[in-house]
């Protein structure tokens, strides 16, 4: 691959070219991929509708780029190394040849079950190689995958399945995470009561948990594989896809309403994830690359599966959690497989930091070359701990800022190229044109300034729409500021022109690197039988970054407030999933509201933070006394 940037000078040149001649720039990157037909036009766009088309007219299949084209000289190189939850269970390695075979076989399973190009397939699976196989098999035949993270509830899955009208669900009996067995198939059974569009469920066996299997609808993964194998349906030619054909839908929360289905398409996403993977991490042949994310999130899509495989890398997939069997698990894995690149989240770093250095000290981490961080701002203490104790001061930390909607990393150091600075995502990657904007929509020029972060020019990996509701896409991302994509993040640009992301400026909470909408949590709390009203805000949490703080008004006295809190949490868990459970619940008799009835979250945020002195002016509130009461009641 000849698009690897290897000096700061080269970065500056590439950046300049990407701004001055974006079409030429991206065309020269795209030349490195395998196309069934090349594009007629590199880019057509406007942010008004919005309409974004990259590599228009081109034909390709992303799996040919991720698999087939590596068979010539990398057939026997590991594509996926899989480390199980239980360290005493055997690990698995799939070479490019084996992965190709398995993807083709399973693609034939999809076909023989009636899945066609354009059909939507929901995937709800544990972190096992079959999850990657299922994802790639969909892409092989042009089916659109919608992966749902294993921590979401039946209700959340049903909402997602119905929104996308999925025809098929791929799941497993269960999944192992630490000491827990997650009953995935049971959750799917509960979801499907509400999902008439689903005709078939393919079930992988993993935990051997007893499950129900409904004749005509539910089929065992292995039986289906055996069937196509017996029929000699081994190979599966890759479906010819248009550059702008949908590749996948991934749901993400915003400040209002139900989660949105972010739509990514084929060619631009492929080029962008491969380009950014290669450059940010400076991947070298035979390196072992370990991203600790779950494939249920965008990081897993782009930087466990598509980006690394497009580059012919060896990507390590881990089924478990960082603290099982103990807080040394990541370091054991680095030691065992001689991992060269570790890409993880600040929340994991903070939790392992708290467990102490005993878990690090006997592990051989000398293979490490590059460390990555993603998901939320990394605080200074965690940055230094990661740098000193894991990287031993010799591995650059790439603090990668991006979002589900972006497809790939937008602002980040390039390892060993961009001088790093703790807590800074540093500089935009080539093709990315960030601007800071003030409340009134004026672009803030110069350095040493802060504002709302927008991007003023398209990049190939950006979202194209929100599934089934293009107007919502326009509203959410392209209407706040004219002709710009609005990220929802606040940001400062320091004297050196380096970017530091300061966090969300909307009603979105970032819990352990996962985005949770306050409105969604409020809706779930309000479904509890005795709740009149609630307001949810984020507050600083030592490990999670932000925690969920809920102010709740009950319509009658509870004789056991602690039990009521647990009931409320259980309700949220049922409606959204365990990841959205409030960390703290405070019962109140009223909420601070303006005369027009708007909840003053700013005040609630200050109180949740314990910053009582800066609650500010409350005199314009409908009922200022309520603030004093809430302050007093704070635990
Ligand atoms: C939000 C996106 C795609 C990454 C995984 C999360 C925050 C992400 C950073 C970072 C500061 C970050 C932002 C962003 N965020 N990375 N390096 N520094 N903040 O994806 O769920 O779509 O959330 O995560 O607030 O808007 P996501």
How would you classify the helix and strand content by structural class? alpha/beta
From the spread of the alpha carbons, the general shape counts as globular
Q: What is the CATH superfamily classification of the largest domain?
A: ANL, N-terminal domain
Strand order of the largest sheet: 12-11-8-6-7-14-15-24
Write down the Rg.
24 Å
- β-strand percent reads 15-25%
Give the second-level CATH assignment, the architecture of the largest domain: 3-Layer(aba) Sandwich
Major sheet summary line: 8 strands, mixed
CATH class of the largest domain: Alpha Beta
Assign the CATH topology of the largest domain: Rossmann fold
Arithmetic mean of pLDDT: 97
Bound molecules: 5'-O-[(S)-butoxy(hydroxy)phosphoryl]adenosine
How far the N terminus sits from the C terminus, by CA atoms, comes to 57 Å
Kindly state the number of beta strands: 31
Low-confidence stretches: none
Q: Fraction of residues in helices?
A: 25-40%
Number of domains: 2
Query: Helix count, per DSSP?
Result: 20
């Amino acid at each position: 691959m000849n698009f690897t940037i290897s000096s700061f000078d080269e970065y500056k040149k590439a950046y300049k070219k990407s701004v001055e001649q974006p079409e030429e720039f991206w065309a020269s990157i795209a030349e490195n991929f395998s196309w069934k037909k090349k594009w007629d036009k590199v880019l057509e766009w406007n942010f008004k509708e919005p309409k974004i088309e990259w590599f228009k007219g081109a034909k390709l299949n992303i799996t040919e780029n991720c698999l087939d084209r590596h068979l010539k000289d990398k057939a026997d190189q590991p594509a996926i190394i899989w480390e199980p939850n239980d360290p005493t269970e055997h690990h698995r390695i799939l070479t490019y040849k084996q992965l190709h075979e398995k993807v083709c076989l399973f693609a034939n399973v999809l076909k023989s079950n009636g899945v066609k190009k354009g059909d939507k397939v929901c995937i709800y699976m544990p972190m096992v190689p079959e999850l990657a196989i299922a994802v790639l098999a969909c892409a092989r035949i042009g089916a659109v995958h919608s992966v749902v993270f294993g921590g979401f509830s039946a209700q959340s899955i049903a909402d997602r399945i119905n929104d996308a009208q999925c025809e098929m669900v791929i799941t497993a009996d269960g999944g192992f995470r630490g000491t827990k067995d997650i009953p995935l198939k049971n959750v799917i059974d509960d979801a499907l009561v509400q999902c008439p569009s689903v005709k078939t469920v393919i079930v992988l066996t993993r935990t051997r948990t007893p499950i129900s299997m409904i004749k005509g609808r539910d089929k065992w993964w292995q039986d289906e594989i055996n069937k196509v194998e017996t029929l000699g349906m081994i190979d599966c030619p890759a479906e010819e896809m248009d550059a702008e054909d949908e590749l996948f839908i991934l749901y993400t929360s915003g400040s209002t309403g139900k989660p949105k289905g972010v739509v990514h398409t084929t060619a631009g996403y492929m080029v962008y994830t491969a380009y950014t993977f290669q450059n940010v991490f400076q991947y070298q042949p035979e390196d072992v690359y370990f991203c600790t994310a779950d494939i249920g999130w965008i990081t897993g899509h782009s930087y466990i599966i598509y980006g690394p495989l497009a580059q012919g890398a060896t990507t390590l997939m881990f089924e478990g959690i960082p603290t099982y069997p103990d807080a040394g698990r990541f370091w054991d894995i680095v030691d065992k497989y001689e991992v060269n690149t570790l890409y993880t989240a600040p929340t994991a770093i903070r939790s392992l930091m708290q467990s102490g250095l005993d878990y690090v000290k006997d592990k051989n981490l000398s293979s490490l070359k590059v460390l990555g961080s993603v998901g939320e701002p990394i605080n200074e203490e965690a940055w230094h701990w990661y740098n000193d104790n894991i990287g031993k001061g010799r591995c650059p930390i790439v603090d990668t800022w991006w979002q589900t909607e972006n497809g790939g990393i937008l602002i980040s150091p390039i390892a060993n190229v961009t001088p790093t600075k703790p807590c800074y995502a540093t500089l935009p990657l080539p093709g990315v044109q960030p601007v800071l904007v003030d409340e009134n929509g004026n672009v803030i020029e110069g350095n040493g300034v802060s504002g709302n972060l927008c991007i003023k020019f398209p990049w190939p990996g950006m979202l194209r729409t929100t599934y089934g509701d293009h107007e919502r896409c326009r509203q959410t991302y392209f209407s706040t500021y004219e002709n710009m994509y609005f990220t929802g993040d606040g940001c400062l640009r320091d004297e050196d022109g380096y970017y530091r992301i300061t966090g969300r400026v909307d009603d979105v909470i970032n819990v352990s690197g996962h985005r949770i909408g306050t409105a969604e949590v409020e809706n779930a709390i309000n479904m509890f039988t005795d709740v009149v009203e609630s307001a949810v805000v984020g507050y600083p949490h030592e490990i999670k970054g932000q925690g969920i703080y809920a102010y709740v008004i009950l319509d009658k006295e509870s004789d056991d407030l602690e039990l009521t809190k647990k009931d409320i949490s259980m309700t949220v868990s049922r409606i959204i999933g365990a990841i959205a459970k409030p960390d703290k619940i405070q019962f109140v008799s009223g909420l601070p509201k303006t005369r027009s009835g708007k909840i003053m979250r700013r005040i609630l945020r200050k109180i949740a933070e314990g910053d009582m002195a800066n609650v500010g002016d409350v005199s314009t509130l409908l009922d200022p006394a309520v603030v004093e009461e809430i302050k007093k009641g704070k635990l």
